[in-house]
């Protein structure tokens, strides 16, 4: 890992990108009564909470539900658990939310948790899309698409869990 640290997004830019993503989600789901945001623990869930708050502010008439999904990344097979029953997403628009899309594995695992639930549609939202996809997963809504080399690492810092100002860094 490189010792050089490059700022990708500062706090204000993260807020702007989050608001833009929320408007895109709203536009894509204009006719839906309810939208379910599925945040991937931990940072994806925090990002999903922020999107939920923005969506409730700009579209108070919409029901914006939030599910937290925990993924066991160290296992070779899919192991995902949710804090609420996945059936609550039945026949609704679902958006899987994470902070960074790298290979697509984490998002694929999160999608797998809903494989037996009939959904109206499923989309993905990420703050940063690194474009190193190994899985056929892409970001429907993203803050920044970033071309990096495989050796580089992207880290998103969020105040709620990191106790420091929001920022996204490239190492």
UniProtKB/TrEMBL annotation:
Pfam families: Pribosyltran
Top-level lineage group: Bacteria
Assigned keywords, A-Z: Glycosyltransferase, Transferase
Annotated InterPro entries: PRTase-like, PRTase_dom, PyrR_bifunctional
Domain Phosphoribosyltransferase: 8-155
Gene Ontology molecular function: glycosyltransferase activity
Signal sequence extent: none
Gene3D superfamilies referenced in this protein's UniProt entry, alphabetically: 3.40.50.2020
UniProt protein name: Phosphoribosyltransferase
Annotated source species: Sphingobacterium paucimobilis HER1398
Top-level taxonomy: Bacteria, Pseudomonadati, Bacteroidota, Sphingobacteriia, Sphingobacteriales
């Amino acid at each position: 890992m490189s010792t050089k640290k490059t700022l990708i997004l500062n706090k204000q830019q993260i807020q702007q990108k989050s608001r833009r993503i929320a408007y895109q989600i709203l536009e894509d789901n204009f006719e839906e009564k309810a939208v379910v945001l599925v945040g991937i623990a931990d940072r994806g869930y925090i990002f999903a909470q922020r999107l939920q708050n923005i969506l409730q502010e700009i579209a108070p008439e919409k029901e914006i539900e939030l599910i937290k999904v925990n993924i066991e990344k160290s296992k070779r097979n899919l192991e995902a658990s949710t804090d609420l029953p996945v059936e609550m997403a039945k026949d609704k628009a679902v958006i899987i939310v994470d902070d960074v899309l790298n290979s697509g594995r984490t998002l694929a695992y999160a999608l797998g948790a809903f494989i037996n639930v009939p959904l109206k549609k499923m989309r993905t939202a990420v703050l940063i899309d690194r474009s190193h996809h190994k899985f056929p997963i892409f970001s429907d809504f993203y803050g920044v698409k970033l071309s990096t080399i495989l050796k580089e690492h992207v880290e998103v810092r969020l105040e709620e869990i990191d106790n420091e100002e929001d920022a996204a860094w490239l190492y």
